[in-house]
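Subject: complex prediction, re-run

Hi both,

The earlier run crashed halfway through, so I resubmitted it with identical inputs.
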Amino acid sequence: MSAEPIVKLSAVNKTYFRGSESIPVLDGLDFEVPDGAFQALMGPSGSGKSTLLHLIAGLDRPTKGSVQVAGKELSKMSDAELAAFRANHIGFIFQSYNLLPVLTAQENVELPLLLTKLGRGERKTRAQTALRVVGLEERMGHYPRQLSGGQEQRVAIARAIVNDPQILVADEPTGDLDRKSADDVLELLGRLNTELKKTIVMVTHDPAAAERATVTRHLNKGALQ
Amino acid sequence: MVPIVYNLRSLAVRKTTTLATAGGVALVVFVFAAVLMLSEGVKRTLGRSGSDDIAIVLRDGSDAELSSGIEAPQIALITAPSEVKRRGGGAPDAAAEIVAVLSLDKVGTDGQSNAQIRGVPDDVMSFRPSVRLVAGRVPRPGADEAMIGNAIRGRFRGLDMGQSFEIRKNRNLTVVGVFEDGGSSYESEIWAGRDQVQSALGRGTVVSSVRVRLRSRDVFERYQRQLQSNRQLGVDVMRESDYYAKQSEGLSIFINALGILVAFFFSVGAVIGAMITMHASVANRSREIGTLRALGFKRWQILLCFLLESSILALVGGLLGAAASLSMALVRFPMVNFASWSEIVFTFEPTPGVIIASLVVAVLMGLVGGFLPAVRAARADVLSAIRA
Ligand SMILES: Nc1ncnc2c1ncn2[C@@H]1O[C@H](COP(=O)(O)OP(=O)(O)OP(=O)(O)O)[C@@H](O)[C@H]1O
Ligand SMILES: [Mg+2]
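This time it finished cleanly. Structure:
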């Protein structure tokens, strides 16, 4: 049993400023995720779920407080350091997939590997392996517009895992999908958690999705309940 | 690195704007390449007229044949030195010629223009073995006949086989031959007997220049020293190749300056076009840029990606423009040469250097036009980019 949580936010404050107006979203939040967990995060719209995910993923910095992920303190990192952190430790899964439309499935999955020292052949093999994990190996030459929403999201998941990051962060990954495709995606995330030991933090509005997770936590007005 | 296929396909997806923008660049590159080709053509045409084992002797202080005058008795002194090659019978291998400008009616317009006439010795063909008749024959000594260069054939009224033109009021010369000389500026001249030209123009026995073929190119300096040290002779001696290089200098600089000025103003338009296109393209792809950043690509990598894209865009234009400019090789372009104030027909000479320079200019335009949009892409905040 590893004692250290892989995600540890302490006394985190996040305030947005719009002109003279300040919008406090998170205030004094403490939040931990143990290594290997699959946690769902629920809560009403505007409660700060995405804001929290962005902090964990190194896409944003807290206004105050400490964000430690995979042993790194993110709150003091420069933009370039955060970019390197994201490339090495985080797989991000978006609600709207965000595949690059002009690249094939395989090329999309390969993108994160272009930030490594891997050669062409090795990149290709790894991208194909990741596509096999999500069950889309035979679709590797397809462009996003030639795939269904569920398939697009699975390609996006392949892209998120291709670098073998420790943590997957998903913001409403099934929000745009029908029930059947959503179940496929959730089943896949479950397998990534149990078989590949990925720590997963997933924001969702869908109770069926939350059920897949091992723990469900509720955020309301920036505070955990 | 963001893969280059991303740029290529993004450009291909926006086919119409890509081609329109590339078209602007192509236009600039076309003008730029055509100017450089013409400037090369000028050097080539005038350069072909000169060889380095021939010395040209002019009056001291004249920089062109047209403004030079040498008295007949001096010709013997000029051809006497031992550096001058001899022909079979011992005569010097030399040509004393008079050069003048005739104002003739242009064919196809109402105006007149200048053509250069050269009064040549009877044995001119043996002095210039590269000159070759393509029609008719050489003028008979003493007859009112002329032969003309292939490049001005048909450009002026009376300048064609069997026709005649006025060398002076009521004095006609009939064209009996047409010659070629490998594209040299002689092809833009009229050649007639020296005596005919001298008497028709009232020049007595004065010639403009004396050319002598040297025993070898290495004896030039000795020959030059010998003639120029003779104050009474009062002549300048130049290698013929240097003389023509100097003749082409002014025109070449003028063409380059004018052309580069025109290309510069065009390029401002093309650069703005590229900037607008890239700007719109960056704005449309905000989410893609945000996604790349979220995956871990750094700001400078985004900057590079878009600079590369605008360079490729401009390079496409550059290739189109350079390809189109190659067609100019078929065009013959008459221009007044400052040194002789008469028309010389030039060709556009495509050289690898011209093509490379054109493509470099295209890429530079892409970089300049793409810079601000690329900076904008690189500066975008990750989260707002994804949300946009
Ligand atoms: N860049 C921003 N500038 C200003 N306010 C922001 C910004 N991003 C988020 N907010 C505000 O912060 C609050 C929390 O937003 P957040 O996106 O974290 O909510 P959420 O829980 O993910 O909601 P949803 O379920 O609708 O996605 C909202 O009131 C939102 O308007
Ligand atoms: Mg949200």
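The first strand of chain A starts at residue 5 and ends at 18.

- K.
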